[in-house]
Q: What sequence folds into this?
């Protein structure tokens, strides 16, 4: 029986993005986030192994398909936008 595969970034994608942000000294652009994601090392492995790696890391990595949105969420940008929208209502 074949196991469903998942992707694991080495190191985690969010840690790569945070490091790049710290080096830049500012939030990354969508183009930068997607370029970093596309150039990062990723391994394909059974989902059960991916889940074990998340547990060992102590956090779940961001979903590469939604890297830009999850990066913004991680930095609180989406919460800030939602607050502004609510305050304007």
A:
């Amino acid at each position: 029986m074949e196991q469903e595969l998942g992707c694991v970034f080495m190191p985690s994608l969010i840690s790569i993005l945070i490091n790049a942000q710290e080096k830049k000294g500012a939030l990354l652009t969508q183009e930068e986030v997607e370029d970093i994601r596309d150039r990062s090392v990723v391994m394909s492995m059974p989902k059960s192994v991916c889940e074990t790696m998340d547990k060992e890391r102590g956090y779940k990595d961001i979903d590469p398909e939604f890297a830009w949105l999850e990066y913004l969420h991680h930095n609180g940008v989406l919460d800030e936008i939602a607050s502004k929208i609510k305050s304007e209502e």
Q: What stands out?
A: The first strand starts at residue 5 and ends at 9.
